[in-house]
């Protein structure tokens, strides 16, 4: 038997989408976590549409992040689709 999706998941997803739009519209980057990346790497989406893989110093999150790689437009679109994050 297929159970209907827990409404809390849909509400949480909507809140995250709204937070993303707010952050990008205010000129800030938005973190996209992906458990397929190494533990210290995350995707960061920027207001100009680019997505970068950046390394975070997990011993001190206030240290500057290191840019590992800037994704191509196709790769960025793939990340957005995989994580249900759309412009």
Please characterize this protein's 3D structure:
- The protein is α+β, with helices and mostly antiparallel strands and 87 residues long.
- It has one domain (27-87).
- The protein is 33% helix and 21% strand.
- It has two helices and four strands.
- The chain has helices at residues 7-25, 73-82; strands spanning 30-32, 41-45, 51-55, 66-70.
- A four-stranded antiparallel β-sheet has the order 1-2-3-4.
- The chain is globular and about 35 Å long.
- The N and C termini lie far apart (34 Å).
- The mean pLDDT is 90.
The description of the largest β-sheet is: 4 strands, antiparallel
The average pLDDT is: 90
Write the element-wise H/E pattern from the N-terminal end onward: HEEEEH
Overall geometry:
globular
